Amino acid sequence: MAEPNFTCNPNDSFKYTLYSSVYSLVFLIGLVSNCVALYVLRCSLQLRNETITYMTNLAVSDLLFVFTLPFRIFYYVTRDWPFGDLLCKVSGTLFLTNMYGSILFLTCISVDRFLAIVHPFRSRMLRTKRNAIIVCVAVWVTVLTGSVPATFLQTTTKTANQTKTCFENFSSQAWKHFLSKIVIFIEIVGFFIPLLLNIFCFSMVLKTLKQPITLCRSKLNKKKVLRMIVVHFLIFITCFVPYNVTLVMYSLVRTGTVGNCSVVTVVKAMYPITLCFAVSNCCFDPIVYYFTSETFKNSIKRKSKSLRLDSDFEASHSTNFLSSTVRTLKSKMLDSESTV
Fold it and tell me: What is the pLDDT, as a whole number, of residue 331?
């Protein structure tokens, strides 16, 4: 017989130090990398295809979440939320939006690569910028439908020492009647279906790459394509699978469905760790851009080459200027010596 929940209260206070450390790192790396990516995607690339559309939306989703991280870092350091219930709701909503928006946009990129490699000719009518925009709008509507209901909760609560918590310490009743339903929706639509699509696309692309005639016809480099899809798939699996599997177990624990103390202890310990893996997707997404889009990669290389050339020009210009100055000074010194 399972133990009652009230007899099992494992200590998971380590999460505050973990969150504040990981979120600080994610904020710094995610802000810089996604700002650079968004600049390249919108300002440097001449090509505006469907892949760039998905990448742009993914970068926007990442940045919206990254901008809320300073508030979360402050909260996890001080263990107090002084910013009000509205900002807590917005922060929680953007977390869910980014989490499942990233999953869906990465899945869109995966499906797009599948169509381009497996069905390069038949998919030309589907793989258009207009259709990509329609898909992106559908993704935003879907993730907002799943995340906005969380804003109806009273997300901040006062503790015994008069501090406020944000998006934690919800009652078992809230989990049973409201939060568990949100978890079911976002897990099915935002995780399990995209996971199956990613596995299908990954396996079909691998199968297609074994056919040399297809590679010759589409002029694809096998090594580059393999690297691209493996990086994409590994980021998806590493960031999102551990957290979403743990979230299901965490929901069962919070609703009282699972009451075994050993299981509760493991789940409550794993939840913060897997959440940090999930949040780190903000840092890894620009890697997907680099390996997925040849135009993105070439643009980065052009920018780097341009900066090196500018640096070399300035260095050579400075060297020439110094050499000229030294020669002038020497000639003046000789002239002055000759007149003595």
Answer: 54
